[in-house]
Amino acid sequence: MTTAATPAATASPCDSPCADALDRLSLGHEQTRALADECRRFAHHVACDPAMQDVAEALCRAIHRMAALEEELFFPAARAALEASALVDLAELEHATARQIIRQLRRTDPREPRYEALVLALTECVERHARHEQALLFPRLRESGLDMEALDRQLDERLALHDDEVSQTEERGGRERAAAH
What we know:
By secondary structure, this protein is mainly alpha-helical. It is built from 6 helices and no strands.
């Protein structure tokens, strides 16, 4: 069951060409929601399955990846394009909430009941954030005249950089583990 989570966590939003930045972010939301759905299936149907931790970690990585894109590029562009930025403020608060849950999740033993509760709280946070952006923020941005194609190119470049950084970190970790043995 965890093999389904791995591609979604590592696949790039819009591996095929996206029409624009909002399509890229929407696909990223879909991928993150799929991992959240898998976490919920584990939490509701399996008692203390170690595979739930793998899926939860994949969800945390996917959230981190999407949050980096949104916080570094999307939110500043959205804030500049919209007169009232309360929608962006709310999205940033949702990110902060997800980060707080992730920190708690990483400090909790997966065998503790609290772990499942944190996973479920994180999945709800993911759902709320994706619904908020797609129903409220994205339509306003489409109407704003923001150059979505240019923003998409920036997002694509940042994703490539993020993925390179992750690969380098994983390679260093593998070399350090091999040297320790």
